[in-house]
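S.,

Sequence below, as promised.
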Amino acid sequence: MTESTDQTTDLLAAVLADLETVVGGIRPEQLHDPTPCTEYDVAQLREHVLGWLTTFASGFADPDGQAPQASSSGDQAPAGSPADSAAAVHAAAGTLTGALRAGAAARPLRLGNSAMPGEMALGMILWEYQVHGWDLARATGQPWSPPAAAAEESLGFAPGMLTEDYQGDGKAFAKRVSVPASAPPLDRLLGLSGRDPGWAAS
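The prediction came back faster than expected:
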């Protein structure tokens, strides 16, 4: 495990600890509220986030880096109470960070028939969970304050993934939102990822 991977893993662990708190704080009456990730309401986004986290954890923990075929869509998420959701994040985060600290990022992560370098997948996961954690926190009126260093790292990673094929109308990521260069790192990462840092539930 390289020093860089070790640092990224530590930052991801901090982000996922915050996510555990957020999913545990979602109230039943908020489940069908809108989120900044416009294709999902709170319940759907929670399921998406938990499903993919479980998939990533299983893939990195597998000796061959193979995520379970049945869950590679990210749709199989633990359901139940807020406490159940928080426990699911805690368990998956423990599996994921444990595998990463044992060197799993040195091999490809395989999702179905596709594969990507493990370190690239780790960078993608750190970025995605900062943004989706913010989506859930903002939609449910909860704080979201992962380490600024996590956003700084993702600001160096994300532009390489946000090509014209992936960002714009009808694509995986919405158009970039203009954010002042002096804004906090997380706000700049949100704008880069097509989010308005000032978004508020109506």
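Residues 3-24 form the longest helix (22 residues).

Coffee later?
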